[in-house]
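Sequence, C-alpha cells reproduced for reference:
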Amino acid sequence: LIPVEKLRACRTELEKKADLTQYTTAIWADDLDEVRQALGYDKINVFGGSYGTRAALVYLRRHGDHVRTLSLEGVVPPDYRLPVSFSRTIQDSVNKLLDRCAADETCKKEYPDLRKEFETVVQRLEKEPAKVQLKTGGGPLQTVTLTRGGFIANLRPMLYVPEVVSQFPYFIHHAYEGDWAPYAYLAIAIRDAIDKSIDRGMAFSVVCTEDVPSITEAMVRRDTAGTWLGDYQVRMFQKACEAWPRGKSGNDVHADVRSAVPALLVSGAFDPATPPQISVKEAKDFSNGRVVIVKDGTHGTGSPCIDGLLSDFVSQGSAKGLDASCTDQIHLPPFLTEAQVGKAMQKAKAQ
C-alpha cells in the first residue's frame, strides 16, 4: 500500500485538476450510459475483469434494459468489501498451491517440507520482521523491513501471474533458508508492473467511498480471524482512507443484482483475490448465467482460449451450448527447481 505521506501528496496534486469525490462506480456507470446514447446504441455487450466486474454489475443494475450480454472475469460480487475479503482468499490460494506441490512428484521431491517451511516463515516474521537488502533501479543497496502482513499481502498480486506461481515453492524455500532475494525482487517487479497499469487515485476514490466506510468490526473479526494476513491490510486501508476524500456511493452499490441477461462468469481455481466459489454464488442471481472455472487459472487468466470463449458468447448472445473444453488445455507452468535456476544463471553468465 502507498505510504500515507505519499498518498497525501498524490491527493494534493490530483485535486488541482479533478474532484476526487466524483470517481465512483455509480457515476461511471451513468457516464457509460451517456456514451452509449451518444453513439446511438440501444443495447451493448458489457465486459468486466476484476474491479471491472463490479462496474459491469452496477451498470447492469442501473441500466439493465440496455445490456445484451454480460461477461465477467474474476468476479467481484456486490457484497464484496475490499480489502477485508483478501485474508481468506489469499489463504485459500496458498493452501491450494501447497497441496499441488505435495501432489506433484517433482515438486514434492525438490521441496518435501514446503508447507512446514511456509508456516515457519510466517511464524518467524510474526516474532520479528525480516531485514532484506535490495538493489533496484541501479540505485544503492537498501535495507527493507518485511513484516508478516507485508509478506502475505504481497503474495496476492504475485500469484496473479502464472510464471510467478511456478516459482512459489522456490522462493518460499529460499526465504525459509534466510535468502529473501528471490521473493523480494519478484514482489517489487510485480508491484511496479501493477503501479504502471492502475490509476491509484481512482482506485482509492472507489475503495475509500464504497468499501472501507462500510467495513464493520464484526466483518473484520469474522473474515480475518485465524488467517496469516489477519487485519493487516484492512487497517492499512482504513488509515489510508483517512487521507483521501470520500464521495457518495449510493444506497445500492452492495445490493444484489438479479437479471435474465445472458451472463458468462469466468474464474480461475487458483485466484487469490476472486476465487471460483464467488462466481458460483453470484451466478445464482442470473437465470441465464453460466460459470466456467479454469482449473489451472489465476486472476484474469489471459489466453486465446478465454478470448475465443468470450467472443463466441457475445456472437451467439447466449452461454447455452458454449464449448468451454479448451480451458482444460490451460496449464500453470511446472514448478521451478533449483537445477533449472542453476542452468539459467550459468547461461546468463556465459552471455
About this structure: The longest strand covers residues 67-73. The first helix runs from residue 4 to 14. The chain has a mean pLDDT of 93.
